[in-house]
Amino acid sequence: MCRGKILPETKAAEKVGGDCCTLNIAPPPNSCLNVLFFHLLVSFTAVEQSESDIYMRFMKSHKCYDIVPTSSKLVVFDTTLQVKKAFFALVANGVRAAPLWETKKQSFVGMLTITDFINILHRYYKSPMVQIYELEEHKIETWRELYLQETFKPLVNISPDASIFDAVYSLIKNKIHRLPVIDPVSGNALYILTHKRILKFLQLFVCEMPKPAFMKQTLEELSIGTYSNIAFIHPNTPIIKALSIFVERRVSALPVVDESGKVVDIYSKFDVINLAAEKMYNNLDISVTQALMHRSQYFEGVMKCNRFETLETIVDRIVKAEVHRLVVVDENGSIMGIVSLSDILQALVLNPAGINAQHS
């Protein structure tokens, strides 16, 4: 396959205090897509191959590099950068996570995500208008030492030459939402893979492949999604309470449910970063409704489905809407469950291989 490279003149295109940089990835030659498409047609014309594992074989036959966009931006933080500056840089660059570079080790040691922002607010918030010293003054390395203590783990990453199947397995097994693609030879971080990006890549080519019979089955028939002990909040729930639920339940979004049980909104981890954008993090006693008034114009919206819709319909809806999950509702619009991108990739790619990475 074709290869791109990091443009040396753009390695430090944008810096925050000398500790944050933005990398621009050069596009591969235009022939890349043609080669990929030809390879796809050749790979899936054998009639004797089973249709049920077609998506698994597609993922195994393509490398992570194939999924890297022709032009992308990657923000990298040095661990000596102040936490507050780092989160403001995430907002300014419109990204949700950044690899962390430790100069002493000359390697990537972790990721800074919105989850870290939530954990800091949850741990150190006292009361309205009381400055959160730890957010204002701590460096990333200090926060990591305090939060991780003795539980430091190697950064989960993947080589650009690894298969996309391996990326799917790693994302789901490790219960992570972002997987950095790091070149093992140069040590360069090339991209951050997500469930959304992988599913969108697959969707580009599904029309050229035989359709597995399970795509016509419903969510209920396939047992896809979570339907018990669903975490949710109400419109008047204080933000600090919502953050506590994020931390305790380890979920990425909370449906907002009214008194009758109907889903009226959704509060995701990504919405929390607006607290930094609006400098509202010193008052977390405000309600979810008040906080959502400051939501950006890029709000994904509450996308819903029911248990009797087919997997094909669900995949098409979630990809077109570019959301991370669908809220499953009944005929009255009341909450029943959640279907995540992780659930969908497990069903499309891993289940046909007899692998249940969600419970491994």
Automatic annotation (TrEMBL):
GO terms for biological process: fatty acid biosynthetic process. GO terms for molecular function: AMP binding; ATP binding; protein kinase binding; protein kinase regulator activity. Keywords: ATP-binding, CBS domain, Fatty acid biosynthesis, Fatty acid metabolism, Glycoprotein, Lipid biosynthesis, Lipid metabolism, Nucleotide-binding, Phosphoprotein, Repeat. InterPro entries: AMPK_gamma/SDS23_families, CBS_dom, CBS_dom_sf. One of its GO terms (cellular component) is cytosol. Residues 69-129, 151-211, 224-286, 293-355 form the CBS domain. Belongs to the 5'-AMP-activated protein kinase gamma subunit family. AMPK is a heterotrimer of an alpha catalytic subunit (PRKAA1 or PRKAA2), a beta (PRKAB1 or PRKAB2) and a gamma non-catalytic subunits (PRKAG1, PRKAG2 or PRKAG3). Interacts with FNIP1 and FNIP2. This is 5'-AMP-activated protein kinase subunit gamma-2. It comes from Sinocyclocheilus rhinocerous. The gene is prkag2a.
